[in-house]
Amino acid sequence: MEIKVQSIKFDADQKLIDYVNRKVSKLEKFYEDAVGCEVALSLLPDPANKNALVRVLIPGTEVVAERNADTFEEAITECVGILKEKLVSAKEKRYK
Prior knowledge:
about 100 residues; 4-stranded mixed beta sheet; about 35% helix
């Protein structure tokens, strides 16, 4: 699965990009046919100003999760948790 990471309004350091790749690559276990994944990291004016949008591309559709948090790592972890459930559900629907 190809993972694309985009940082909006800031430059992500390599440590953050590696963290995102490590966490998001685990999603492939839940839906083997996933084509790719797009991650958009951005800064917001809110107190919890770190935003993560994770979009997993699967045949015929996409599964999306978005979260705001105090750190990008926390936002990514929450998105991955949500996407695990969504991917398992999508896989069950597809192979019924």
